[in-house]
Amino acid sequence: MGQILSNPIIDKELDNGGDIMTAFGLCAMQGWRMSMEDAHVCLPKVKGVNKDHIAYYAVFDGHGGASVAEFCGERAAEVLEAQKHVKEGKYARGLIDAFIGLDIEILKDAVLRNDHSGCTATAVVISAEQRQVVCANAGDSRTVLAREGRAKALSYDHKPTLVGERSRIVAADGFVEMERVNGNLALSRAIGDFEFKSNHNLPPHEQIVTCVPDVVAHDLDFAKDEFVVLACDGIWDCLSSQDCVDLIHYGINRGDMTLEDIASRIVDVCCSPTTEGTGIGCDNMSIVIVALLQPEESLDVWFERMRAKKHAPLVSFEDKRRSVFSFYEFPKDDSEVFVVSTKKSDDHTSYSSQEDEEEDQTHAAAGHGRPQMDLFSLETLLGAGGIQLSQGANNVSYIHGSALSEVLASLSGANGAGGAPGGVTTGEDVTSEDEKPDRIEEVKE
């Protein structure tokens, strides 16, 4: 039972930049959630990599608190640069080492090693010398490549219900209940979450929850490959991979938007107009759009090249927003469609959502990590329904007037999240030939 605000916090972190190989636009927004638990890295050029020129982009989506995600946002590039295999140009192995290295660095911190938060991570290294993009992913943030207007998966969501993930969990003496690891965590891979990595007889890739990512390598063809999108599940809950690629092309074809503008508008599309719907659109949101520049190509020339492709049909931002939140009656005037994420309010009073959001439930069973509703707020909510709280011995509160199951049912909705496509090494869940990865590096220790 997660807490959300009465109005979303719509202050956006916006950024852009680039160099001779890539250019990027970023937007991150807290939205309806009580706190911002996303972090990111946008580094067009990584230092200390011999003769190669590589870029590094990553999105970290925290759960159970922001600490681990913030640490990754601050230290991930430094950890990557320190990896031997990265310096040698072995980027698939280097990314795996970097994910494990982040866990190791967190454990060295006297405070963070006892922190119960964790974060998903999706990251790419783009190499000029090898003409390749290498993606590492742990969790349900996602990276997508746009290739001739089509969305091609570079990562797969890791859910406990997947056969490979469940097998590892059970082999490590864990279990999957209610589609969650040990009935608690909705993800099967993450950085942090050390309470699920406590078996000292097992290597990192065999723990109940592992930080070890799947790695997909794609050989670049600049005539076909257009851009890469990295985003947290707050975006992917609302848009399919193809939806996102289509919206980016729509923004490009308008001719008056930067990559930063397009990223910001996609966040607007995905921010729920109300908390009374299905619960999607009420999460933190972060998205990075990375343009793949041809040698000696400027960003302006890249935009012209993209517009010349004339990908169609393309749906507008306004129409896509109406489609995502079809239960809501938007104003007919397109200029009013985005008002909830563009008109600021000072009222950020919180209340409990009826949506059983995956990220908020991460550590519910242990009773720690995320902000909890205080007793007075709970008593007010229950009292409105004729249910009473009374104080007993040892400072224990008792609920009267309804069975506990009825109370819980009245406060939380069913989680409608289905199993996201997520093959570990086979790519069997990819629906089209264009979306299949060139190869997936299988993790071995």
From TrEMBL:
<feature type="region of interest" description="Disordered">
    <location>
        <begin position="344"/>
        <end position="367"/>
    </location>
</feature>
<protein>
    <recommendedName>
        <fullName>protein-serine/threonine phosphatase</fullName>
        <ecNumber>3.1.3.16</ecNumber>
    </recommendedName>
</protein>
<feature type="compositionally biased region" description="Basic and acidic residues">
    <location>
        <begin position="433"/>
        <end position="445"/>
    </location>
</feature>
<dbReference type="Pfam" id="PF00481">
    <property type="entry name" value="PP2C"/>
</dbReference>
<feature type="domain" description="PPM-type phosphatase">
    <location>
        <begin position="23"/>
        <end position="292"/>
    </location>
</feature>
<comment type="similarity">
    <text>Belongs to the PP2C family.</text>
</comment>
<keyword id="KW-0479">Metal-binding</keyword>
<dbReference type="InterPro" id="IPR036457">
    <property type="entry name" value="PPM-type-like_dom_sf"/>
</dbReference>
<feature type="compositionally biased region" description="Gly residues">
    <location>
        <begin position="415"/>
        <end position="425"/>
    </location>
</feature>
<dbReference type="InterPro" id="IPR001932">
    <property type="entry name" value="PPM-type_phosphatase-like_dom"/>
</dbReference>
<dbReference type="GO" id="GO:0010508">
    <property type="term" value="P:positive regulation of autophagy"/>
</dbReference>
<dbReference type="GO" id="GO:0046872">
    <property type="term" value="F:metal ion binding"/>
</dbReference>
<dbReference type="InterPro" id="IPR000222">
    <property type="entry name" value="PP2C_BS"/>
</dbReference>
<keyword id="KW-0904">Protein phosphatase</keyword>
<keyword id="KW-0464">Manganese</keyword>
<dbReference type="GO" id="GO:1903753">
    <property type="term" value="P:negative regulation of p38MAPK cascade"/>
</dbReference>
<dbReference type="GO" id="GO:1904289">
    <property type="term" value="P:regulation of mitotic DNA damage checkpoint"/>
</dbReference>
<keyword id="KW-0378">Hydrolase</keyword>
<feature type="region of interest" description="Disordered">
    <location>
        <begin position="414"/>
        <end position="445"/>
    </location>
</feature>
<dbReference type="InterPro" id="IPR015655">
    <property type="entry name" value="PP2C"/>
</dbReference>
<dbReference type="GO" id="GO:0004722">
    <property type="term" value="F:protein serine/threonine phosphatase activity"/>
</dbReference>
